[in-house]
């Protein structure tokens, strides 16, 4: 059983149920992001690059590099790519179909990893985009 399979204290505090396939999948996706970040930091250290050098190459302050390396912020793909470029790494992302989740996604059953507030924000954004599209 790897760490993505074991509930931790934060999972319990947030009410994450790893028996729920959608919540389990959401946690696996986060674990993938964490692994990208760890591997890139390992490459930086192996190459003997300082955070200051990486920050300069990325065009950001050293605080942003520290935050990236600590995992303090949501990992944006553009940041991941810029960090990889700065340390001379390659990042490959594989997107695959999860057929085992189809029944849950179609039925609306299973726990949701999105809060109602987040859904409302997305609905509002969709409405605003539709209005913008209609205006063109």
Give your account of this protein's structure:
The protein is an all-alpha fold. It has a domain at 9-93: Orthogonal Bundle (434 Repressor (Amino-terminal Domain)). The chain is 63% helix and 0% strand. It has helices spanning 9-14, 21-46, 51-58, 62-70, 77-87, 102-107, 116-135. Residues 113-125 have low confidence and may be disordered.
Please give the CATH class of one domain: Mainly Alpha
What is the count of β-strands? 0
The assigned CATH architecture of one domain is Orthogonal Bundle
Query: Based on CA inertia axes, which overall geometry fits?
Result: elongated
Rounded to the nearest angstrom, the radius of gyration is 19 Å
How far is the N terminus from the C terminus? Answer: 53 Å
Largest sheet: none
Mean pLDDT: 77
Number of helices: 7
Task: Summarize the helix and strand pattern as letters.
Answer: HHHHHHH
The fold-level CATH name of one domain is: 434 Repressor (Amino-terminal Domain)
* CATH homologous superfamily (4th level) name of one domain: lambda repressor-like DNA-binding domains
Low-confidence stretches: 113-125
Helix-residue proportion: 55-70%
**Secondary structure category:** mainly alpha
Strand content: under 5%
Brief summary:
The protein is mainly α and 136 residues long. It has a domain at 9-93: 434 Repressor (Amino-terminal Domain) (Orthogonal Bundle), CATH 1.10.260.40. Helices cover 63% and strands 0% of the residues.
